[in-house]
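re: ur question from the group chat, yeah i did fold both. here u go
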Amino acid sequence: MKNSRIILALVASIGLFAVSCNNDDSNGGETIAPLAGKWNYSKVGTTSGTTETLIDAPQNQSGCNRDYIDLKLDNTVIEGNYDSTIDPCALFTDNGIYSRSHNDLTRVVNGVTKVQDIVNLTFNQLKLKDDAGNIEVFVR
């Protein structure tokens, strides 16, 4: 009697474990983290085969706020660039539109279209990669 209870408990535990580890991708592989918001440039890099090389974003000027993209809920985008060429940490912005199709992000700013794969999207990080293997990492 005691052995049958142990076996029953073991079978029930294994069944619960199997159900909790189900790999059902009912959301099509997309994350539920919001894409809209202000994202600061953190790192840039490239891929070669399966090797990724990332460095601190060189477009971020020392002593200034980080350059950014601001993806608005109405599908407009503002790209912010801090530049000290004329005035210290002067902010220059360009406006455009963006769209998301599954895990692709398309931005059109000043007539230039940029299509990137959303490699990672969490509440704190957005990682994009284009077809040439160029990577941009943004943080909130």
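okk and heres the other one u asked abt
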Amino acid sequence: MTMQAEQLVQLVIAALEDLKAQDILTIDVRGKTSITDFMVIASGASSRQVKALADNVLEKAKEQGVRPIGSEGLEGGEWALIDLSNVVVHVMQPATRQFYDLERLWQGAEQSRAQQAQE
């Protein structure tokens, strides 16, 4: 069974909300990169919560027949990355999320393209 990217995003968000993830953000990166269609970024209050959130996303995806391409950082708990092909999930502690600032990186690319189009 293959899930559409949008359906997979909803599954990921539900798995994150189940365990009270904070500041969940979805960024549509189609047309900006060929590695994925969507990025979902969420915060966990502690290393234990980050790990639990990532594990829950993996479990819910596998229940729906979605096999992850890979995952990183599950041991440390500061940042976990789950690659579900069409959707890449980043779960971070707030300080780590602020440091890497993926929102600005990916949304900034969209804004700079829009500004160039207007010029």
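fwiw on the second one: Strands lie at 22-28, 38-43, 70-72, 79-83, 87-92. Residues 5-92 form a domain with the Beta Polymerase; domain 2 fold (CATH 3.30.460.10). idk if thats what u expected
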